[in-house]
Amino acid sequence: MKVNMMHGAGGEVMGELLQTLTKFRHNNAGGIGLEAMDDGAVIPFNGENLVFTTDSHVVRPIFFPGGDIGRISVCGTINDLAMMGGKPVALSCGMIIEEGFEIDDLARIVASMDEALGEAGANLVTGDTKVMERGALDGIAINTAGIGVAKTIVRDNGLVCGDVIIVSGTLGDHGLAIMAHREGFDLGEQIKSDVSPLWGLVEKVLDAGTVHAMKDPTRGGFASAINEMARKSGVCVRVQEEKIPIRKNVRSAAGMLGIDPLEVANEGKVVMGVPATCVDAVLEALHSHKYGKDAAVVGTVTKGAHVIMETAIGGERFIEPPMGDPVPRVC
Q: In what helix (H) or strand (E) does residue 307 lie, and over which residues does it extend?
């Protein structure tokens, strides 16, 4: 058996590969380590909870409606820190650049990264650059790692019965923006990526109320994220189809392309489980932030297993975790 594209798509097939890649005996520095398969690690140090994460980015195309590979590389790492409750402090950046890459494009990417760092109040403090021969890459690949500090640690496995599931905004925007752009659909700015640094939004939520579990629905989309949260927490999640926020143009583009918008990557959204007593306060905090204006309650947590969709016509069906991302190379 050999590695194929499905192994990097964030679905069930990738999970199988990770079972091989994570078999390190030295995988925990005394807090939350690799074995937890969370959005990052937590390392206790001098009375602080340091959050550490890393991410690699191979986006095609590197410039797309709403963003580029530079913005997504910074936002992806900042958001992984935020999902653990970590305030981003410092990032590193490793670039692998193909011979012949345009210097002007590189400058544009760096400027985009700097803008996202400024939004999040973080700094890029160290890095590395390699150049590969022509034909070895699709232009450029970027790795970013980040360190944050968490007052309150949040996990993706903390859902409890009675919790309410909230999403911070419309789903499917990023994956459908890239797919439509790739396929040559001239949609102007009708569909654009949601790629955004989310620490400011998450900080407001953590100050407003209790969050039992949190995850950003990147590769594999909402379907993958909510299934992972339910499985790790040992609960059932019931989602109401009519309450899921999806833009009409995203839903239309998904229909044309034969893609389920719940299975494609988002780069500026959060899925969270909060106690019912905190719902109003959390929604108010989300709605007060520019990246949370479309936040909505989409479901509840009950006893049992699986993720169940209560459909608009009164039926029920499982929301299955995708085998892979139907839109590869989007993050």
A: strand 307-310
